[in-house]
Every structure is written in C-alpha cells, then in structure tokens.
Amino acid sequence: MNRKYRKTVIAGNWKMNMLTSEVKAYADTLRASSGKVRHCEIAICAPFVMLPRLIKSFRDCRIAVGAQNVSDKDAGAYTGEVSAAQLRDLGIKYVIVGHSERRAYYGETDEIVSAKVRAALAAGLIPIVCVGETLEQRERGVTEEHISMQVKLALGGVPAEKMRRVIIAYEPIWAIGTGRTATASEANEVCSRIRAVIRSLYGARIARAVTIQYGGSMNASNAAELLSMPDVDGGLIGGASLDPEHFAAIIEAANQ
C-alpha cells in the first residue's frame, strides 16, 4: 500500500450468498469486530435485493455499500436490468464491473465491460473493474499481455479527469474460490504492471493515484502480507467477506 498517493479500499463481494434477513446481524457483528476504521475505506457489494437493507444497516458508520453488477444502458426496455442512475439514486457508492464470473457465465465482453465502466462513472459511481488471467494463460506466460489488453479495453473512452474514481481489481481466475492464492510478490508484479499500463495511457501522476486491489482468495491469514506490497492497495474479498469476523480481520490488516 502507498497511502501517500492513493486510498486503500477493502470491498467484500458476497456474490449470490446471504439473505436479506441476515444483513442486520452481519452488520452488528462487523461493526463490533472491526473497531475504528482509520486508514482504509470499506464496502460491501451484495445482490440487488439486499442493497436497501445494507444501506440502512450501515447508515451511521464508515462502511459503504456497492452493487455487483450494473447495466451498460441508461434506461429503457431492458427487463431485469438495473441502471447506474438507479443505483446512485438508491445511495450506492461502488459497483463491481467485469468480474470473471460475469465474463465467463454471462458472456460479458471487453466492450460491454467498457460500456459499463463509462455508465457507472457518468452516474457518479465508483467502478471496481476486474481483470485477471486463467491458469492456462499464466502457465503459457501470457499473463502480462492478457491483463494489459483487458485494462486498455476496459478504460477505453474514460477521460483522464475521471480516472481517479476508477478502481482496478486484479483477480487471477485460477485463485478465485479455489483456496489458491498468488504469492505477495506475484500479486504485486501484476498490480505493478496494471499501474504501468495506466501510466502509459494517462501519465505518471494519475497512475500513482489509482487504487489497485488484489482479489484472489485474500483472507485473514494472508491479507497483511499481500497488503504490505507497494502496488497492492486493498482487496476485493469473496468467501472471507461472508464471515463478519474474518472480514474484520482483513480490515484490521489494512488499518495497520
């Protein structure tokens, strides 16, 4: 982490887990376990149906609420979709864009991801843009090329003045939900490469200010080591965020 130039953000991604009826108990435990948040921003990204309850539960503390997806369209006859403006009107701050599960299971292309990034920014949301490689791509030695292209395509059309509101999350697909985790040096190497791509697009000053998270099975036992890396500015936490005490331990590691 480098707090001199950029913010540290720890975001939980509940995916399709939890129930609305469980939100209050979770929020109470998290607030009791995490103590005073000093050096990082915290967000919970949950299914759409839980967002109003989460906003109510965290209204009086420094925990923001995020969505896990957003439409690339502004409005219209798109049954089942939720627009960025609707999320913003609800009180949402963050939105995950381009998660590998959205890309793999629902056919989200780099072009769709880019359109969603622009829609989120236009509505005043902070997009958490996910990029990452498969195990096959890593073993073939094309991680750098693949992720560089993902970053460039995702940021297509994003003006320099809005880049400070963009978060990039490096999520090696081979480490998501598998229990496998990139070593701290491996995670930092890719995050550093992402920053270099942003530097090539927007210059050193903007690249230095962009938060880059690591998101491949970060948990309470490895968070401190991962977050000690100079280019790892936080985490996008999957399974470990479902347990408020485990999530609080990661937050505490970021607070150090």
Walkthrough of the structure:
The model has no long low-confidence stretch (mean pLDDT 94). This protein starts with 8 loop residues before the first strand and ends with a helix. The protein is of the alpha/beta class. It is built from 11 helices and 8 strands. The chain is globular, with a radius of gyration of 17 Å. Helix 1 packs parallel to helix 11 and helix 7 crosses helix 8. The longest helix is centred in the last third of the chain and has 19 residues. 41% of the residues lie in helices and 15% in strands. The chain has an 8-stranded parallel sheet. It has a single domain, classed as TIM Barrel, CATH 3.20.20. Helix 3 links the parallel strand 3 and strand 4.
Helices and strands in order:
Layout: E1 9-13, H1 23-34, E2 41-46, H2 51-57, E3 63-67, H3 84-90, E4 94-97, H4 100-106, H5 110-122, E5 126-131, H6 135-139, H7 143-154, E6 167-170, H8 184-202, H9 204-209, E7 211-214, H10 223-227, E8 234-237, H11 244-255
Parallel strand pairs: 1-2, 1-8, 2-3, 3-4, 4-5, 5-6, 6-7
Quick structural gist:
This protein has 256 residues and is α/β, with parallel strands linked by helices.
Question: Largest sheet, if any?
Answer: 8 strands, parallel
Radius of gyration: 17 Å
Structural class: alpha/beta
CATH fold assignment? TIM Barrel
CATH class: Alpha Beta
Descriptive key words:
single chain; 256 residues; TIM Barrel; globular
